[in-house]
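From the shared-data thread, chain only:
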Amino acid sequence: MPDIILGFQGEYKWLSNFWESPIIVTGIHYRNVESAYQAAKSINIADRRTFSNMTGYQAKKAGRTVTLRADWHVAKLEVMELCLRAKFMANKELAMKLVETGSADIVELNTWGDTTWGKIRTKDGTLTGSNYLGKLLMHVRRDLNS
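Structure, as tokens:
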């Protein structure tokens, strides 16, 4: 096992929120975590349902157009954790794969500049960013190990 997983590519692509892994969140079926997460930005149930059959890419784009619920900036971490837990509870094979990452640090390394959910590599080669997605995945992994 590696000490660190840098990015959700290749053998670790399944860690991505865009990975097709059907989940149910607040009674609505979604194709992937990204769709459920983007849907949760709205308090309107009809709006949320429009995300149910979207790919992750479609959902990310559509999520930019919804009216954000008033508490979104406070709730978004909790929502992401809920969606991730739904992913690994619904798919035992993915849960086992997450457990099998052992104690490796999980870093959502990206090139699109997301320093909230992941990290980016600066020009001098250092990594910077909050990596909340990686931290939440490690939190879920810890709980799966309990």
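The beta strands are 4-6, 23-25, 28-30, 105-107, 120-121, 127-128.
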